[in-house]
Amino acid sequence: MIQLQNVTKKYGNEFALKDVSLTLEKGKIYGLVGPNGSGKSTTLRMIAGLVYPTSGVVTVNGKIVDRKIANEVAYLSELDINYQSFSAQNFIDFYATQFADFNIQKAEELLSFMKLDRHKKWKKLSKGNRGRLKLVLALARETSVLLLDEPLSGLDPMVRESIVKGLLSFIDFEKQVVVIATHEINEIESLFDEVIAIQDGAIVEKVNVEELREEQGLSVLEWMKKIYQL
Amino acid sequence: MGEEFHTSKPIYLQIIEKIHRKIVRNEIKLGEKLPSVREMAVQMGVNPNTIQRTYSELERMGIVQTKRGQGTFVTENVEVINGLKEKLQEEIIEAFVTNMEELGFSKEDMITGINMYFNKKE
Predict the structure, then answer these.
(1) A62 — alpha (psi -120 to 50), left (phi > 0) or beta?
(2) How many CB atoms are located within 10 Å of the residue A41 CB?
(3) Nearest residue to B10 via CA among A211, A193, A30
(4) Residue B8 and residue A218: Cβ atoms within 8 Å?
(5) Residue A191 has pLDDT above 60, yes or no
(6) Which end of chain A is more exposed for a tag (fewer CB within 10 A), N or C?
């Protein structure tokens, strides 16, 4: 379980997050949506222990988050990886040495699920296959928290489909809570249990998506248009 | 994705409808085992909790039964399936009639129209 209590993050005089309180439970997939610069990445990085709050408390499984939380949190960054001459095999070997929870068997299954060539170097991989490999590495870890920052961004529909199916096949719903920050909704909205809309560092609304459809007759996209008044 | 959904309508209801139609068309047979929640989630490209809700709802309707440790099975009760057929038929007719009434057609117009349509087709 993830908890943010009155969390504020300031960079100089700028607020990245403003008094955010949030509880996220295991067995659910949360969508964190909002425009660029709204605080999505900061929220994920804070749960991952990469950034600390200016005030307020972030806990994962009851523990206050610090750098050691990396043992319980798998985090897929939106940034590119800087190991240009690493192959998928090198990454798997490396991850296995870094994380005790890294499941090599699962990584192997994921590699073949994603139809990735284990010997091809990162710099020679297409953008789509880089996206797939990043997901393989995140999903092969048996952590209670899985954070994905823009896993679909800039990828074509075929790759998006394989990523969505990969998530559905390999997430451990008994144990994991999954948070996906994304500004692209179309392919992924049927995956969410709940969606959290964030704007200017504050949470605007949090809804259960099936209730949204049932009670308001709105899709996530329509709901976002209403919130952000696009 | 595996399936396309209207994203502004509850997805569990849309999956229930898909399964109903498959049963009525006999693509899913009486007593047949449905895919596990996870398999179905991957097939449909939706959250497993949505499938769980679909199966619970189908069970409440008497269409499926969950056997502990074995999975979810379509009922073998023919009456339930016949009831489902009638319900689907009624829904389609109701939608048709409502649509026609909105355009100002009377009951007689509709019956004549349907007969003419079948005559032309044959």
Answers:
(1) left
(2) 21
(3) A211
(4) yes
(5) yes
(6) C
Rounded to whole angstroms, the Cα distance separating B98 from B101 reads 5
Measured between beta carbons, the chain B residues lying within 8 angstroms of A214 are 10, 13
Chain B interface residues facing chain A, Cβ-Cβ under 8 Å?
1-2, 5-13, 38, 41-42, 44-50, 53
Residue-wise pLDDT for A106-130, tens only, equals 999 999 999 999 999 999 999 999 9
Contact A210 B46 (CB under 8 A): no
Contact (CB<8Å) A219/B8: yes
Cβ of A219 within 8 Å of Cβ of B11? The answer is no
B12 with A210: Cβ contact below 8 A = yes
Task: Please report where in the chains the tokens 């897929």 appear, as a residue.
Answer: A76
Min distance A150 CA to chain B CA atoms (Å): 18
What is the pLDDT at residue B4? 81
For residue B51, list chain A residues with Cβ-Cβ distance below 8 A.
none
Helices (H) and strands (E) in chain A, counts: 7, 10
Q: How far apart are CA A186 and CA A153, in angstroms?
A: 12
Q: Band of the pLDDT at B36, cuts 50, 70, 90? A: very high
* Residue A92, pLDDT above cutoff 70: yes
Minimal-distance CA residue of chain B relative to A214 = B10
Q: Best mutation site among A160, A168, A207 for testing chain B: the one with the most B CBs within 10 Å?
A: A168
Q: For residue A140, give Cα distances in angstroms to A29, A91, A135.
A: 17, 12, 8
| Residue A140 pLDDT > 70 | yes
Residue B64: beta bridge partners? B74
Closest CA to A149 of A50, A45, A46: A45
CA dist list (Å): A126 to A116, A117, A122, A163: 11, 12, 9, 15
A227: how many CB neighbours lie within 10 A of its CB? Answer: 16
